[in-house]
Write a structure and sequence with these properties.
Elements (H helix, E strand, L loop, with lengths): L2 H28 L6 H16 L8 H11 L1 H27 L8 H24 L4 H13 L2 H20 L4 H4 L1 H23 L10
Helix pairs in contact: 1-2, 1-3, 2-3, 2-4, 2-5, 2-9, 4-5, 5-6, 5-9, 7-9
Length: about 210
């Protein structure tokens, strides 16, 4: 491949990634943020999965995104409500402990564990949701189980978040173009590595199948 062809390929993929990020932001606001963030994020991961796992390079981004967005809109908002309630529970407990210093310190390790478990589950939730066919609560269970058994991939995801945060601080203009989509690509890549390793250990072919 010549130098011009390489430049064209890189530029083409940068445009796709930027367009995907714009779609993610747009459809998040279509759902008034609260009702749009989870369906839009799930739709974004459905596309990054096609790019990385199935190597589908020329999919119609808007059509594919819109189909996934509306298909899982209600279900994803159900999951969003669950994560919101967990977050509120953690916030309420922290506030309660701060208002009662020295009385409920024994709850701190419990809260820390719940917080860590919720973050791990959230990081692996969307890759699990778009990759497997499971029952409602099995998605949450398997996201957590895969997360705690994939330490290297988990560290990679957290490192990517910090790197993106640093990029945003240095270049705030990248927010509408390369934040969500780049993170989704990194998480998809790392989670697929975890899925394949688990499938290899279990001796199964991993593609639209349950790990339960």
């Amino acid at each position: 491949m010549g130098g011009w062809d390489k430049f064209y390929l890189i530029a083409n993929w940068m445009l796709r990634i930027a367009y995907l990020n714009i779609l993610w932001i747009f459809f998040t606001f279509v759902g008034f943020v609260f009702f749009g963030i989870f369906p839009a994020t799930s739709a974004m991961f459905s596309i990054t999965r096609k790019w990385i796992f199935h190597r589908e390079r020329n999919i119609k981004l808007f059509k594919t995104f819109w189909t996934a967005y509306k298909q899982d809109f209600l279900k994803q908002n159900g999951y969003g409500l669950i994560f919101l309630l967990v977050g509120y529970f953690i916030y309420y407990d922290i506030t309660f402990i701060q208002l009662n210093p020295g009385q409920f310190q024994f709850l701190v390790p419990v809260i820390v564990l719940i917080f860590a478990a919720s973050i791990i589950t959230l990081l692996f939730f969307f890759p699990v949701f778009v990759h497997f066919k499971l029952s409602f609560f099995q998605y949450l269970k398997q996201a957590f189980l895969i997360g705690i058994s994939s330490i290297l991939e988990l560290i990679g995801m957290i490192a990517t978040i910090f790197l993106l945060y640093g990029m945003i601080v240095l270049l705030p203009g990248t927010i509408p173009l390369f934040t969500g989509s780049v993170l989704a690509i990194a998480i998809t890549f790392l989670s697929q590595s975890a899925f394949k390793r688990i499938a290899f250990k279990k001796g199964i072919q991993i593609d639209e199948t349950s790990v339960g």
